[in-house]
Amino acid sequence: MLTVFDSATIAARERLEAWREITAASLAPTAIDSPDPEAFTGRLRSMPLGNAQVTSLSYTSLVARRSSREIRKSDPECYQVGIIRAGRQGIEQNDASAMLGRGDLVIYDSSQPFEAIVSATSLAEAVHLQFPRRLLPLPTRQVAGLCATSLPGNVGIGSLLAAFLTSLADGRTQYIERDARRLETIALDLTTAVLAHHLERENPPLRSPTYTLYLRIIAFIENNLHRPELRPATIADAHRISQRYLHRLFQQHHPAGVAAHIRARRLDRARRDLADHRLDHLTIATIARRWGFGRPADFSRAFHRHTGTPPRDYRSNT
Protein backbone atom coordinates (compact mmCIF):
# COMPACT_ATOMS: atom_id res chain seq x y z
CA MET A 1 0.00 0.00 0.00
CA LEU A 2 1.10 3.56 -0.65
CA THR A 3 1.36 5.96 2.30
CA VAL A 4 -0.72 8.95 1.27
CA PHE A 5 -0.66 10.90 4.53
CA ASP A 6 1.36 10.81 7.74
CA SER A 7 0.76 13.56 10.29
CA ALA A 8 4.30 13.12 11.65
CA THR A 9 5.51 15.13 8.66
CA ILE A 10 3.17 18.08 9.37
CA ALA A 11 3.18 20.79 12.03
CA ALA A 12 0.80 19.99 14.90
CA ARG A 13 -1.49 22.97 14.29
CA GLU A 14 -1.99 21.95 10.64
CA ARG A 15 -2.62 18.23 11.10
CA LEU A 16 -6.39 18.19 11.58
CA GLU A 17 -7.09 20.39 8.56
CA ALA A 18 -4.71 18.28 6.46
CA TRP A 19 -6.58 15.16 7.62
CA ARG A 20 -9.88 16.70 6.54
CA GLU A 21 -8.46 17.39 3.10
CA ILE A 22 -6.90 13.97 2.54
CA THR A 23 -9.94 12.01 3.74
CA ALA A 24 -12.21 14.15 1.56
CA ALA A 25 -10.05 13.37 -1.46
CA SER A 26 -9.52 9.69 -0.66
CA LEU A 27 -12.92 8.74 0.79
CA ALA A 28 -15.72 11.32 0.97
CA PRO A 29 -15.99 14.89 2.33
CA THR A 30 -16.91 15.01 6.01
CA ALA A 31 -16.88 17.61 8.76
CA ILE A 32 -14.18 16.42 11.17
CA ASP A 33 -13.47 17.75 14.65
CA SER A 34 -11.14 16.64 17.42
CA PRO A 35 -11.32 17.28 21.19
CA ASP A 36 -7.65 18.29 21.06
CA PRO A 37 -6.76 19.41 17.51
CA GLU A 38 -3.05 20.01 18.21
CA ALA A 39 -2.70 16.53 19.72
CA PHE A 40 -4.36 14.89 16.72
CA THR A 41 -2.33 12.35 14.76
CA GLY A 42 -3.32 10.27 11.78
CA ARG A 43 -1.96 8.10 9.02
CA LEU A 44 -3.60 6.98 5.78
CA ARG A 45 -2.38 4.39 3.30
CA SER A 46 -4.26 3.46 0.15
CA MET A 47 -4.30 0.96 -2.70
CA PRO A 48 -6.57 1.07 -5.78
CA LEU A 49 -8.37 -2.10 -6.86
CA GLY A 50 -9.89 -1.25 -10.23
CA ASN A 51 -13.06 0.69 -9.43
CA ALA A 52 -12.62 -0.07 -5.73
CA GLN A 53 -10.06 1.07 -3.17
CA VAL A 54 -8.62 -0.33 0.05
CA THR A 55 -7.59 2.23 2.65
CA SER A 56 -5.78 1.64 5.93
CA LEU A 57 -6.29 4.38 8.54
CA SER A 58 -5.02 5.09 12.03
CA TYR A 59 -6.06 8.16 14.05
CA THR A 60 -6.65 9.57 17.50
CA SER A 61 -9.99 10.78 18.89
CA LEU A 62 -12.29 12.56 16.45
CA VAL A 63 -15.89 13.11 15.37
CA ALA A 64 -16.73 12.86 11.65
CA ARG A 65 -20.12 13.96 10.34
CA ARG A 66 -21.35 13.69 6.78
CA SER A 67 -24.44 15.82 6.45
CA SER A 68 -26.91 16.38 3.61
CA ARG A 69 -24.90 19.49 2.78
CA GLU A 70 -21.69 17.52 2.18
CA ILE A 71 -23.65 14.96 0.16
CA ARG A 72 -25.11 17.65 -2.09
CA LYS A 73 -21.65 19.12 -2.65
CA SER A 74 -19.96 15.82 -3.48
CA ASP A 75 -21.15 12.24 -3.47
CA PRO A 76 -19.08 9.36 -4.88
CA GLU A 77 -22.18 7.12 -4.48
CA CYS A 78 -20.12 4.46 -2.76
CA TYR A 79 -20.42 1.90 -0.04
CA GLN A 80 -17.66 1.70 2.52
CA VAL A 81 -17.02 -1.53 4.39
CA GLY A 82 -14.74 -1.24 7.40
CA ILE A 83 -12.96 -3.75 9.63
CA ILE A 84 -12.01 -2.34 13.03
CA ARG A 85 -8.48 -3.30 14.04
CA ALA A 86 -8.05 -1.25 17.23
CA GLY A 87 -10.00 1.17 19.42
CA ARG A 88 -13.70 1.72 20.04
CA GLN A 89 -15.62 3.49 17.29
CA GLY A 90 -19.27 4.49 17.16
CA ILE A 91 -21.35 5.08 14.03
CA GLU A 92 -24.92 6.23 13.28
CA GLN A 93 -26.78 6.06 9.96
CA ASN A 94 -30.34 5.37 8.79
CA ASP A 95 -31.68 5.52 12.37
CA ALA A 96 -29.29 2.74 13.39
CA SER A 97 -26.22 2.96 15.59
CA ALA A 98 -23.47 0.65 16.75
CA MET A 99 -20.42 0.70 18.98
CA LEU A 100 -17.68 -1.18 17.19
CA GLY A 101 -14.62 -2.87 18.60
CA ARG A 102 -11.71 -4.91 17.37
CA GLY A 103 -12.82 -7.52 14.81
CA ASP A 104 -16.16 -5.89 13.95
CA LEU A 105 -17.23 -5.22 10.37
CA VAL A 106 -19.48 -2.32 9.39
CA ILE A 107 -20.94 -0.94 6.16
CA TYR A 108 -22.17 2.58 5.47
CA ASP A 109 -23.39 4.57 2.49
CA SER A 110 -21.81 7.81 1.24
CA SER A 111 -25.21 8.98 -0.05
CA GLN A 112 -26.82 9.00 3.41
CA PRO A 113 -25.87 11.23 6.36
CA PHE A 114 -23.81 9.55 9.06
CA GLU A 115 -21.81 10.34 12.18
CA ALA A 116 -18.73 8.47 13.36
CA ILE A 117 -17.18 8.98 16.80
CA VAL A 118 -13.78 7.73 17.88
CA SER A 119 -12.78 8.12 21.51
CA ALA A 120 -9.41 6.52 21.97
CA THR A 121 -6.63 6.76 24.53
CA SER A 122 -4.31 5.33 21.85
CA LEU A 123 -4.51 5.10 18.06
CA ALA A 124 -7.68 3.67 16.58
CA GLU A 125 -7.17 1.61 13.44
CA ALA A 126 -9.44 0.46 10.61
CA VAL A 127 -9.25 -0.86 7.06
CA HIS A 128 -11.88 0.33 4.58
CA LEU A 129 -13.01 -1.09 1.27
CA GLN A 130 -14.75 1.56 -0.83
CA PHE A 131 -16.56 0.75 -4.08
CA PRO A 132 -19.37 2.15 -6.26
CA ARG A 133 -22.83 1.13 -5.05
CA ARG A 134 -23.76 -0.06 -8.54
CA LEU A 135 -21.22 -2.90 -8.26
CA LEU A 136 -23.02 -4.57 -5.34
CA PRO A 137 -25.65 -7.00 -6.72
CA LEU A 138 -27.98 -6.63 -3.73
CA PRO A 139 -31.10 -4.45 -3.35
CA THR A 140 -30.17 -1.01 -2.05
CA ARG A 141 -33.13 -0.85 0.32
CA GLN A 142 -32.11 -4.14 1.93
CA VAL A 143 -28.47 -3.15 2.30
CA ALA A 144 -29.67 0.05 3.98
CA GLY A 145 -30.97 -2.12 6.83
CA LEU A 146 -27.43 -3.36 7.51
CA CYS A 147 -25.78 0.08 7.52
CA ALA A 148 -24.30 1.16 10.86
CA THR A 149 -24.82 -2.26 12.43
CA SER A 150 -22.09 -4.42 13.92
CA LEU A 151 -21.28 -7.48 11.79
CA PRO A 152 -18.86 -10.10 13.14
CA GLY A 153 -15.52 -10.10 11.36
CA ASN A 154 -13.74 -12.70 13.49
CA VAL A 155 -16.01 -15.70 12.92
CA GLY A 156 -17.81 -17.33 10.02
CA ILE A 157 -17.92 -15.82 6.57
CA GLY A 158 -17.11 -12.36 7.93
CA SER A 159 -13.66 -13.58 8.95
CA LEU A 160 -12.86 -14.37 5.30
CA LEU A 161 -13.54 -10.79 4.24
CA ALA A 162 -11.72 -9.36 7.27
CA ALA A 163 -8.65 -11.54 6.65
CA PHE A 164 -8.60 -10.58 2.98
CA LEU A 165 -8.77 -6.84 3.67
CA THR A 166 -6.20 -6.89 6.47
CA SER A 167 -3.80 -8.96 4.36
CA LEU A 168 -4.01 -6.35 1.61
CA ALA A 169 -3.48 -3.58 4.16
CA ASP A 170 -0.45 -5.27 5.72
CA GLY A 171 1.13 -6.43 2.47
CA ARG A 172 4.02 -4.66 0.80
CA THR A 173 3.35 -5.97 -2.71
CA GLN A 174 2.75 -3.44 -5.47
CA TYR A 175 0.15 -5.11 -7.66
CA ILE A 176 0.03 -4.59 -11.40
CA GLU A 177 -3.23 -3.33 -12.90
CA ARG A 178 -4.44 -6.76 -14.00
CA ASP A 179 -3.85 -8.20 -10.51
CA ALA A 180 -5.66 -5.25 -8.91
CA ARG A 181 -8.75 -5.86 -11.03
CA ARG A 182 -8.77 -9.54 -10.11
CA LEU A 183 -8.48 -8.60 -6.44
CA GLU A 184 -11.38 -6.16 -6.92
CA THR A 185 -13.56 -9.06 -8.06
CA ILE A 186 -12.58 -11.11 -5.00
CA ALA A 187 -13.25 -8.18 -2.64
CA LEU A 188 -16.70 -7.55 -4.13
CA ASP A 189 -17.61 -11.24 -4.12
CA LEU A 190 -16.61 -11.62 -0.46
CA THR A 191 -18.50 -8.45 0.49
CA THR A 192 -21.60 -9.67 -1.35
CA ALA A 193 -21.37 -13.05 0.37
CA VAL A 194 -21.10 -11.47 3.84
CA LEU A 195 -24.00 -9.07 3.32
CA ALA A 196 -26.19 -11.71 1.65
CA HIS A 197 -25.55 -14.03 4.60
CA HIS A 198 -26.82 -11.43 7.07
CA LEU A 199 -29.76 -10.43 4.88
CA GLU A 200 -30.88 -14.04 4.62
CA ARG A 201 -30.51 -14.52 8.38
CA GLU A 202 -32.53 -11.42 9.22
CA ASN A 203 -35.08 -11.70 6.38
CA PRO A 204 -36.38 -15.26 5.96
CA PRO A 205 -38.61 -14.18 2.99
CA LEU A 206 -35.40 -14.13 0.93
CA ARG A 207 -35.73 -17.93 0.91
CA SER A 208 -39.27 -17.73 -0.46
CA PRO A 209 -40.20 -19.33 -3.81
CA THR A 210 -40.18 -15.85 -5.36
CA TYR A 211 -36.59 -15.23 -4.30
CA THR A 212 -35.57 -18.72 -5.40
CA LEU A 213 -36.97 -17.97 -8.85
CA TYR A 214 -35.05 -14.69 -8.90
CA LEU A 215 -31.81 -16.54 -8.10
CA ARG A 216 -32.50 -19.06 -10.87
CA ILE A 217 -33.01 -16.20 -13.32
CA ILE A 218 -29.75 -14.52 -12.24
CA ALA A 219 -27.92 -17.83 -12.79
CA PHE A 220 -29.62 -18.26 -16.18
CA ILE A 221 -28.45 -14.80 -17.23
CA GLU A 222 -24.86 -15.52 -16.12
CA ASN A 223 -24.82 -18.75 -18.14
CA ASN A 224 -26.22 -17.13 -21.28
CA LEU A 225 -24.48 -13.77 -21.50
CA HIS A 226 -22.75 -14.90 -24.69
CA ARG A 227 -26.06 -15.30 -26.51
CA PRO A 228 -26.97 -12.18 -28.53
CA GLU A 229 -30.67 -13.08 -28.27
CA LEU A 230 -30.59 -12.91 -24.44
CA ARG A 231 -33.17 -10.30 -23.49
CA PRO A 232 -36.15 -9.98 -21.12
CA ALA A 233 -38.51 -11.77 -23.52
CA THR A 234 -36.29 -14.85 -23.87
CA ILE A 235 -35.64 -14.96 -20.11
CA ALA A 236 -39.36 -14.79 -19.36
CA ASP A 237 -40.12 -17.53 -21.90
CA ALA A 238 -37.39 -19.80 -20.51
CA HIS A 239 -38.92 -19.52 -17.02
CA ARG A 240 -42.56 -19.62 -18.16
CA ILE A 241 -43.45 -16.27 -16.71
CA SER A 242 -44.63 -13.00 -18.23
CA GLN A 243 -42.22 -10.15 -18.91
CA ARG A 244 -44.25 -8.01 -16.53
CA TYR A 245 -43.67 -10.50 -13.72
CA LEU A 246 -39.95 -10.70 -14.61
CA HIS A 247 -39.61 -6.93 -14.30
CA ARG A 248 -41.52 -7.02 -11.01
CA LEU A 249 -39.07 -9.62 -9.62
CA PHE A 250 -36.15 -7.34 -10.43
CA GLN A 251 -37.89 -4.35 -8.87
CA GLN A 252 -38.25 -6.36 -5.66
CA HIS A 253 -34.80 -7.94 -5.49
CA HIS A 254 -32.34 -6.12 -7.73
CA PRO A 255 -30.85 -2.60 -7.86
CA ALA A 256 -31.17 -2.42 -11.66
CA GLY A 257 -33.62 -3.46 -14.35
CA VAL A 258 -33.29 -6.67 -16.36
CA ALA A 259 -31.79 -5.15 -19.51
CA ALA A 260 -29.43 -2.93 -17.49
CA HIS A 261 -28.22 -5.95 -15.50
CA ILE A 262 -27.55 -7.96 -18.66
CA ARG A 263 -25.63 -5.08 -20.21
CA ALA A 264 -23.56 -4.46 -17.08
CA ARG A 265 -22.65 -8.14 -16.69
CA ARG A 266 -21.66 -8.41 -20.35
CA LEU A 267 -19.48 -5.32 -20.05
CA ASP A 268 -17.86 -6.67 -16.89
CA ARG A 269 -17.02 -9.93 -18.67
CA ALA A 270 -15.63 -8.01 -21.65
CA ARG A 271 -13.62 -5.78 -19.30
CA ARG A 272 -11.97 -8.83 -17.73
CA ASP A 273 -11.13 -10.26 -21.17
CA LEU A 274 -9.58 -6.98 -22.30
CA ALA A 275 -7.41 -6.93 -19.17
CA ASP A 276 -6.29 -10.54 -19.71
CA HIS A 277 -3.13 -10.50 -21.80
CA ARG A 278 -3.56 -14.17 -22.59
CA LEU A 279 -6.37 -12.98 -24.89
CA ASP A 280 -4.35 -10.31 -26.68
CA HIS A 281 -4.68 -12.34 -29.88
CA LEU A 282 -8.44 -11.65 -29.89
CA THR A 283 -9.64 -8.42 -31.47
CA ILE A 284 -11.88 -6.06 -29.54
CA ALA A 285 -14.70 -6.87 -31.97
CA THR A 286 -14.26 -10.60 -31.24
CA ILE A 287 -14.44 -10.00 -27.50
CA ALA A 288 -17.54 -7.86 -28.03
CA ARG A 289 -19.23 -10.66 -29.99
CA ARG A 290 -18.07 -13.16 -27.36
CA TRP A 291 -20.30 -11.38 -24.85
CA GLY A 292 -23.36 -10.78 -26.95
CA PHE A 293 -22.57 -7.43 -28.61
CA GLY A 294 -23.32 -7.82 -32.30
CA ARG A 295 -22.12 -4.36 -33.35
CA PRO A 296 -18.62 -3.22 -32.31
CA ALA A 297 -19.63 0.46 -32.38
CA ASP A 298 -22.46 -0.21 -29.90
CA PHE A 299 -20.03 -2.10 -27.67
CA SER A 300 -17.46 0.72 -27.75
CA ARG A 301 -20.03 3.34 -26.73
CA ALA A 302 -21.48 1.17 -23.97
CA PHE A 303 -18.01 0.24 -22.65
CA HIS A 304 -16.93 3.89 -22.61
CA ARG A 305 -20.04 4.86 -20.61
CA HIS A 306 -19.60 1.94 -18.22
CA THR A 307 -15.88 2.34 -17.47
CA GLY A 308 -15.12 5.90 -18.52
CA THR A 309 -12.50 4.62 -20.97
CA PRO A 310 -12.73 3.47 -24.61
CA PRO A 311 -12.02 -0.28 -24.93
CA ARG A 312 -8.85 0.23 -26.99
CA ASP A 313 -7.38 2.59 -24.37
CA TYR A 314 -8.49 0.29 -21.55
CA ARG A 315 -6.70 -2.67 -23.11
CA SER A 316 -3.49 -0.75 -23.82
CA ASN A 317 -3.32 0.69 -20.28
CA THR A 318 -3.81 -2.60 -18.39
TrEMBL record:
Entry-linked Pfam families: AraC_binding_2 (PF14525), HTH_18 (PF12833)
GO molecular function term, any single one: sequence-specific DNA binding
SUPFAM superfamilies: Homeodomain-like
Keyword Transmembrane: no
InterPro entries associated with the record: AraC-bd_2, AraC_XylS_family_regulators, Homeodomain-like_sf, HTH_AraC
Record-annotated HTH araC/xylS-type domain positions: 215-317
Keywords (A to Z) from UniProt: DNA-binding, Transcription, Transcription regulation
Tagged with keyword Ligase: no
PANTHER family, per database record: ARAC SUBFAMILY (PTHR46796:SF6), HTH-TYPE TRANSCRIPTIONAL ACTIVATOR RHAS-RELATED (PTHR46796)
Protein name: AraC-like DNA-binding protein
Species per Swiss-Prot/TrEMBL record: Actinoplanes campanulatus
